[in-house]
Write a structure and sequence with these properties.
alpha+beta; two-stranded antiparallel ribbon; single chain
């Protein structure tokens, strides 16, 4: 079952870069690079179970960073949770951004906007067809007189 509570754009082991202002322990993590440790996915057996209701969509990806919150060159590591829109997948070999990862995750709104656009186009086509029929009927009526 696909919805915003599950992560779809990242896999365990992906290198990611924080692209939004996210504060942990008083430090902004924007620009930091880390590795995905875990992504939230709904259970295939029972996607409506209680664990699906309790997930926070802004915290469905767990990332590990080297260093501390204050310095990436310090010893150790720390983890933090993110939403998909706060991260960007990067290539490991040269740390450049992967262009395909700039797509926003599907959130259902895109589908709604698409459907509304299609309905608008269809209503415009119906209105145009009605105008043509009315013009043809008026022309036919004028020919009878």
């Amino acid at each position: 079952m696909r919805d915003r509570s599950s992560a779809y754009w990242f896999n365990v082991g992906d290198s990611v870069k924080v692209v939004d202002d996210v504060v942990k322990a008083g430090c902004n993590l924007n620009g930091r690079t880390g590795k995905v440790l875990e992504t939230w996915e709904k259970c295939d057996v029972d996607p409506t179970c209680c664990c699906a209701e309790n997930v926070e969509s802004d915290m469905n990806i767990r990332v590990e960073f080297q260093g501390t919150e204050r310095s990436d060159s310090a010893d150790g590591s720390f983890v933090f949770y993110f939403g998909e829109e706060e991260l960007l997948k990067v290539k490991e070999e040269d740390d450049t951004e992967v262009a395909a990862s700039k797509q926003q995750p599907f959130d259902g709104l895109s589908c709604k906007a698409f459907k509304l656009d299609m309905m608008k186009q269809q209503s415009e086509q119906v209105a145009l067809a009605k105008e043509k029929r009315a013009a043809a009927a008026a022309k036919e009526e004028a020919g009878r007189e």
